[in-house]
TrEMBL record:
Organism field: Caloenas nicobarica
Gene Ontology BP terms: response to metal ion
Gene coding for it: Cuta
Family indicated by similarity: Belongs to the CutA family.
Lineage: Eukaryota, Metazoa, Chordata, Craniata, Vertebrata
Keywords: Signal
GO molecular function annotations of the record: copper ion binding
Oligomeric and partner information: Homotrimer.
Highest taxon, organism lineage: Eukaryota
UniProt protein name: CUTA protein
Residues spanning the signal sequence: 1-17
Stored PANTHER family: CUTA DIVALENT CATION TOLERANCE HOMOLOG-LIKE (PTHR23419:SF2), DIVALENT CATION TOLERANCE CUTA-RELATED (PTHR23419)
Length: 136
């Protein structure tokens, strides 16, 4: 039981240790922040979802990128459509909550919600993200 509990707590303890190290040294811990990619059917849906994300304070910044052509397989058929892409900048710790929330409001049956951790960047920008996106 101790081993199982240790394995379950490891990510939390590691995260806390890295945050403490970063706070003491002023260094950035790679992966503390992420960019999420969310596709939307049109500009109005993109704006609505972006505003909803911001209202919930699940992100510090959302870019709404213009139309792009998308090719994908859906139910065995090759489909082609235009989509609007959201780039969402947030704490990595918020990605699960962000994903659950977007799935609850997104009109697609299976919306694209993927994220990539940020490796490096402007420390002042990361500090601003932290000030904009509360822990809970």
């Amino acid at each position: 039981q101790v081993v199982i509990l240790s394995l379950l707590l490891y990510p939390v303890l590691r995260s806390l240790a890295l945050q403490l190290h970063a706070a003491l040294t002023g260094s950035y811990v790679s992966g503390t922040h992420s960019i999420a990619f969310i596709n939307c059917l049109n500009e109005q849906i993109a704006k609505d979802i972006a505003r909803a994300i911001m209202d919930k304070k699940l992100a510090a910044y959302v870019n709404i990128l213009p139309k792009s052509l998308a090719l994908y397989f859906w139910k065995g058929e090759l489909e082609e459509s235009t989509e609007i892409l959201l780039l969402v900048k947030t704490r990595t710790s918020k990605i699960g909550e962000l994903s659950n929330y977007v799935r609850s409001i997104h009109p697609f049956e299976i919306p694209e919600i993927i994220s990539l951790p940020i490796d490096q960047g402007n420390p002042l920008y990361f500090k601003w993200i932290e000030e904009s996106v509360p822990w809970d």
